[in-house]
Amino acid sequence: KNQVEQSPQSLIILEGKNCTLQCNYTVSPFSNLRWYKQDTGRGPVSLTIMTFSENTKSNGRYTATLDADTKQSSLHITASQLSDSASYICVVTDSWGKLQFGAGTQVVVTP
Amino acid sequence: EAGVTQSPTHLIKTRGQQATLRCSPISGHTSVYWYQQALGLGLQFLLWYDEGEERNRGNFPPRFSGRQFPNYSSELNVNALELEDSALYLCASSFGGRYTGELFFGEGSRLTVL
Q1: Is residue A23 within 8 Å of A52, Cβ to Cβ?
Q2: Cα–Cα distance list, A85 to A47, A63, A111, B101 (Å)
Q3: Cα–Cα separations (whole angstroms), residue B94 to A28, A31, B84, B113
Q4: B51 interaction partners in chain A (CB closer than 8 Å)
């Protein structure tokens, strides 16, 4: 069973609307959690990274939250743009440096 | 500063052949990771090299192998290619050791096996 589960698998939103992606993990002991954005056929690019003590972190219109007690994270996209169409990947690192990748959420922003 | 560079960008091989993919990490990074991403699927961990040593290996057969050179660049070799090896192969680098900071990814090498 994957130690990092993302939901939904995909979603379609209208340009200008907000959306929230979820990431639940069982990785332990926890070190950090990152969200990456991957455009089709390109390498992933880091959006945010959070450690145990951080609850929220923003990067422009992207805001990530982390609840280390419930082992849940979310990525909120505000006022979506067409360029936000991509796969969003949650990556959790344990204290030994091992990374676990979620399968990603495919976001499609339509005009 | 140059990012992670991968070569070749595209590679077409036939079943049974061997493929070699190359990766140059960001200057100062000692860890290199290899991932396979089949079309429409998530990233699957292949190999992790740090300071020239293989640190971890994903659930892939032995025909997937690699190495890291003294300058921290890395090579991924895939022997006896099969059709299902067709995928985007991504390399990432980071500062090494037990602290795994942010991963920086290259643009990938697209391998097509006919």
Answers
A1: no
A2: 14, 16, 11, 26
A3: 21, 15, 29, 30
A4: none
pLDDT tens digits along B30-65:
999 999 999 878 888 899 999 999 988 988 999 999
Chain A touched by B95 (CB under 8 Å): no
What pLDDT, on the 0 to 100 scale, is given for residue A98?
78
Q: Which of A101, A105, A106 should be substituted to probe chain B, the one whose Cβ sees the most B Cβ atoms within 10 Å? A: A101
Q: Residues near B26 by Cβ (< 8 Å), separated by ≥ 6? A: B1, B2, B3, B4, B93, B104
Cβ atoms of residues A78 and A17 within 8 Å: no
**CA dist., res. B31 & res. B73, Å (int):** 9
Which tokens sit at A41? 């056929």
Contacts of A96 in chain B (CB under 8 A): 98
pLDDT at site A1: 67
Q: What is the pLDDT of residues A34-51, one digit of tens each?
A: 999 999 888 999 999 998
The DSSP bridge pattern shows strands B44-50 and B19-24 to be unpaired
Placement of tokens 């169409």 in the chain: A85
What's at A95, amino acid-wise? S
CB-CB: which of A41, A91, A102 is closest to B88?
A: A41
